[in-house]
Amino acid sequence: MFPKMVERAQSANTSHTRSCQMESCNHPTREGKPYCPDHVDAHPYVQSILDTLAARQAEEERVRAVGSRAVDLEGLTAKELVLHLSLHGARTVERLSRELQLEVDVLRGYVHRLSEEGTVAIGRTNRGSTIVRLAEDE
Ligand SMILES: [Zn+2]
């Protein structure tokens, strides 16, 4: 019983010992992972996430530069904004900016575009702040 367990542990260990799949990297990886920590971003799944985040970043840069027409309504940021409003209700632009960690100018681009699409409605607080809510809420 005892030797068998040892044997098993060893073979499990062997099958989980892999080298990083990155060319020119021979670092062993842990727990059977295909890439070492230095090259984990070469993993296809990780790469697709990084691509998505990079696309989001590029889109936000364009919105900052040219305004609401650069907004991708199918992009992460627009969807996140709509989801946030659906979960939390009406918000001022300033508060949305903080909560979504988006610059106010960039956020205004998204709000403007989504209001043109009829997805959100824009109002004013007594203090003159712009308040945003999902259009269905009206
Ligand atoms: Zn590596």
Please characterize this protein's 3D structure.
With 138 residues, the chain is mostly helical. It folds into two domains: 2-42, no CATH class; 68-137, Orthogonal Bundle (Arc Repressor Mutant, subunit A), CATH 1.10.10.10. Helix content is 52%, strand content 12%. The protein has five helices and five strands; from the N terminus they run αββααβααββ. The protein has helices spanning 2-16, 44-66, 76-88, 93-100, 104-116; strands at 18-19, 28-29, 91-92, 120-124, 130-134. A three-stranded antiparallel sheet has the order 3-5-4. β1 and β2 form a beta hairpin. α2 (44-66) crosses α5 (104-116) and α4 crosses α5. The longest helix has 23 residues, at 44-66. The termini are far apart. Mean pLDDT is 89; it is low at 6-13. The chain binds zinc ion (ZN).
Topology (elements, then pairings):
Layout: H1 2-16, E1 18-19, E2 28-29, H2 44-66, H3 76-88, E3 91-92, H4 93-100, H5 104-116, E4 120-124, E5 130-134
Antiparallel strand pairs: 1-2, 3-5, 4-5
Helix pairs in contact: 2-5, 4-5
The protein binds zinc ion.
CATH top level assignment of the largest domain? Mainly Alpha
Number of domains: 2
Please name the CATH topology of the largest domain.
Answer: Arc Repressor Mutant, subunit A
Q: Describe the oligomeric state of these chains in a short phrase.
A: single chain
